[in-house]
Amino acid sequence: MTNLGPGTALLSRNKNDRFTTLPFGEGAQLVVNKRRSAKEELAFQKSAANYLGARHVAALLEHYGANCVLDVGANVGQYAKQLRRHGYTGRIVSFEPVPGIVEKLRRAAAKDPNWWVYPHALGSTETSTTMNVVSGSMSSLLGPSEFGNRRYKRFSKIESQEVSVRRLDNILDEVLDGIDEPRPYLKLDTQGYDLEAFAGAGERIREFVGMQSEVALMQIYEGMPRMNEAIAAYEGAGFEITGMFPVTREESTGRVLEFDCVLARADSLVTPPAAAPSAAFATQ
Fold it and tell me: Which GO terms describe its biological process (predicted)?
């Protein structure tokens, strides 16, 4: 396989080739390196899960006619950029409380008028509080657990910063302003604080057609809810699981630490599957 530039590669085959192709559904083939190591296998599985998860979310947003995605825990805009790559053209509202990261996020969104940025965390109470800021995308309102400290060296260097916390139900009218018949979707990635952000939606969570949340099998942060507790809360609010995608896996044991859990509110599906594509998606 020869890289010919962005988005293009030349695939050639011979009897000694280390690559093989596998059917990957109608209209797709998966090219696999047959000689990959165990470490490369884990990296392959992670990349495949990321890609399939992104495709699943894009299909869900279109199927349910979502026209505003609330990107809570946006970091520098990776999720929003992913939505755009997969064809979503509707409004994105990103929430990121860490000042230095917010500036990078604003630069990422600067040329996209339908991508808004708010410099807040979301929680169950309107307040100002201290955030534990670390390098990368693992800053949290919660402190690291004993397991988290063992696993991530970056937790040895934590900087405390004061951040603003808003309730979602107090800001929802503002972020949906100007959208006729809003059909919002909630993405949560708050490093252990997802249930607090979810609680801040109050009864207005019923307005959301779908959501996704990182749910934990292992507690990386002190006091973060385990997967069963989080899913019970989401199901109790009327959401049902449409997909589970591994986010982090422990290499030594193979166990999954976190899943990206995607859910939808089935009774909000008001148009039949054969209906015209959502206006929030680019026409192919």
Answer: methylation
